[in-house]
Batch of 4 targets.
Target 1
Amino acid sequence: MKPVITACAADITNQPADEGSCSATNVNLGTITATDNCDTNLTITNDAPNVFPAGSTTVTWTVTDDAGNFTTCTQVVTVVDNQDPKIISCAADKTVNADAGFCTASGVDLGSVEATDNCDTDLSITNNAPSEFPLGETVVTWTVTDDAGNSVTCEQTITVVDTQKPVITSCASDITNQPADEGSCSATNVNLGNITATDNCDTDLTITNDAPTVFQAGTTIVTWTIKDKAGNIATCTQSVTVVDTEDPVITSCATDKTVNADNGFCYATGQFKLTQGNL
């Protein structure tokens, strides 16, 4: 009669793979119990490998009595991979310029992540990068996942900078005939007008100029400066021409005079020369 197995070794459902390996060694299989009608010293063996690969392995246990009668049972050993992939290098941080005419950057080359795994040679590597990066810093999370569902993450920072100058659509118009102030050879309180400009990012541009408080007679060049929040600058120039439109003022005219005619003539000569001092 065959021996009777009263309890086979229990299945092992979650045997962790050895650290850094995709297999398990030194697995404790447990024991089986069996009886026999004659033999009290049964021979119990199994065909377990020294190294269990990831996944399920069926181990056959054999119980043999002294008469050569034997019986078998099976045990399933399942080796699982519970080790996260290891990231060797994350994608490097990058600083990129905003696209021309925009305040965002698209088509950014993020680079790549290098990783290894104890089991999987075809890791799934994904990231949550947007199609367009806004101005400033955006953190991109990379996720590396193996076939067993273990995952690890790393972060990359993408910085978008604005290097584009504001665009001046119209500068302040030249002023060609600004009258000098009354009684002065210069002009004050000159209405310079204004300029219009646009920017790819900034809707609140800083607009300044170097106009003097007092414009002297003649032509003065005024430089207008437009600056956005990123510090990008555009300039244009305006000419202001102050003209003198006032007539001279005669403060006193030459006094009337009575003179004698020249001797033998009916007119007088050499009596008076007109100079600026006579006026």
Target 2
Amino acid sequence: MSYDLCLHVDANDPAVLAFAFVNARNYINGLPGKEFQLVLVANGPAVKLFVPAQAELQKTAEELMAFNKAVNEDEEVFFDMTIVLTADIDLTGYTWVPLDGYAFDFTTFDGNGHTISNMEIIHEVESGTPADQIGAGFVGVARGDIYFEDITFDNCKVTAYERAVGCLIGCVTGGFMSFENVYVKNFTVDGWMDYANQDPANGGHPISFRSAGFIGHIMVPGSTADFINCHVDGIKLSGFHNMAGFIGYASDAIDEYCFEECSVSNAEFTFSYCLSASY
């Protein structure tokens, strides 16, 4: 099957057409096994060219970890692309590194009805790291528009040594977040650290806070989020404060948000702020 994209070019100069095609080809990236039919329409006859469609398929844990490497180590970008799961993926035996949100804008994660299970994150943060660079989740820090649809995360765990933890997104510093038909089940955040010892040099760690089933922290004004038919069931979060089912903390940073047909059930939160003399 092919998919048509008609690009109108106000010229019939072959050089202009070639430039338009090269840019379109670079814009539309890799869907194995399918073709994207690009039709260039100029002042003369239409020229039909074939380039790959804009999607990246993931069907095994190995492929998903290779995608993780492409984002976090190879610094590839996936703007205006759809990441599609074609099977359930079990990440048992792997340690997930939160995806760098710099790689995504107008990016869709389409679960296609499938589940990512047993994602484990051990989130260590260097002392002095700015708050807008701290986030633990499937995506660490989101900076552009990201859409999740038709996907379930089951039995995932984050061991957090700092703020901003969400199963899907740790921290949002801008853009529009959309979630439709998304489920988070049996999600655990271990953010309970010894309040009396927060010094890494002495075996302690900062205490995690701002944690939730979907997004840990929305921190930059102008962000928006929609949740449609989204559900959180069986989450167990521990940390300092600001824990919730969907968004741990937003304050005035979020301009608009919408919840339609959403629910939270079987949620357990363990707070350690009561150990502080200043709270």
Target 3
Amino acid sequence: MSPRARLWLLFASLAIGTTAVLAVALWLGGADAWLLAPALLLIVTAQALVWLHLDRRWVQPATALAREIWLLLHARAERAMAPLGAHGLGRLPDAVSALVRRWRASQDDQDAAIGRAMARTAEEQSRLEALLRDLSDGVIACSIDRRILLFNDAALRILAAPIELGLDRPLDRLLAREPIIQASELLRERHGARSDADPALREEFVCATADGARLLRCRMALIVGQDRAIGGFILDFVDPTERHGRIERQAEEIAGQVEALRRDLRRTTGDQAAGGGVA
């Protein structure tokens, strides 16, 4: 029930009660009691006038002010508060208008700060992605519950799992769960034993892929915030067999180049020797 309806019921109850009391007085008082009828009419009229005055000066302006506050707080565009006309609220509407303006200014400052922070975050993320693209080692950043936040192209190449490797997907679908948990717990214990954040705090281990087909040499580091709260971890890894194969291919290429150089030298020496015999 609205305040205006409650006020109307209050005055209506007073008017009904007054009428009932005077009616009983007329019924018990006889003919002389009818002289109280003008007083009854005067009291009821006074109550009605008081109700109209309160409704016009306070109830209606207060209801309009509440509606304006709601509109100001939820308006998409900036708007001024509509005038309330004659009212008995004193300086309350001006105070509310000033409060809404200050709140709106603080909201604008907060939105601007959030926009700047998001722009810095996007810039740092782009810079990080550019750095990760140049790495030959696979890199995966995960949340504390081992869900993937970021990865580079080398991780996609080494793991050869384009379906399972994706943002917000579980790392357990790619790598064995137990070595990851064990390394994370060891790093947390070492981090908790220190009074400061050590950026060189790392744990090296060997981990199999989820299907057990390959072994990867891994290194884990924690993601630590300014309040020393752990937000996740970064895992970089290499496939020793892939690196060994790459070294073998490079060695074969170098051996081929050396052999070609030897053939060129033998050919050059033979030509020089033939030229000397003719002379």
Target 4
Amino acid sequence: MTSKPHKLSSSFASRTVFPTASLLGLTFFCPTVLLAQTAYTDKAAFIAALGNGSLVITNNWDANQPGDLIPSGTKICQGLLTYNILTADGEPLDLQIFDYFDTTTPLNYIGPESPEPRRALFLASDSVMLTFDQPVTAIGVQFVACPGTFEASFHITAIVGGTEFTADSGPSTTVLSDWSEPYFVGIIADPGETTSEATIWSDEGLFSYSLDEIIFQATIPAFVLGDANLDGTTDVLDVPAFVDALLDSYTDMCDVATSDLNIDGQVNGNDVQTFIELIT
């Protein structure tokens, strides 16, 4: 799937945020049926529609510290987060965790790296791709547009059943304490359908935003201790993923949930012996 082009402009490392006048509106959100999926613009309705059949994974970055970097290719549970965000000079930027602006799930969010948190925001037409090791049945993203945003529009494009579909955001219906505005987009595949790839993107426009939360529904019913590759069983196939969790400084909630075998909140050498016993 081809990603949207990345908008380049100038600022500290050559990126500029664009605050403008804000228009507030009220609307009622209803799911939109799209051939092999249902699109949602309301998080509560999306969560309610997921049901209780499989594991729901929420990545809200709160297990990490502000300032932590998230390089392209970072694993988040079953998925890999990849992107190619550049400065105007063509230099790549990593994503970074911040807590400067308000969020819907305090405290952290992600944006392009910057020494100035108020400028660490995605620009219109930036995009981020998620690819999943194991297929998922649903994906939802909570965007937060910076204060003063005008007519922001966000999207998820996913390959569902071999066909590309796009879900679109509706108007924001609330304002956070710093006057930033949340937008939600979600896709739930029809029964029997899954997706292994999704791109998070926005339209061209004069606005900037952060990624507050990424939610997806796995195809396994629950976490299994030691199942580091999230295929539903604990065996030798989990060794590479367990080693990654053991050595990686980035704290992934699924790494902790599956590889923290002594349940102390950390993945470290104290978990190795139990892991060996589980796979032998």
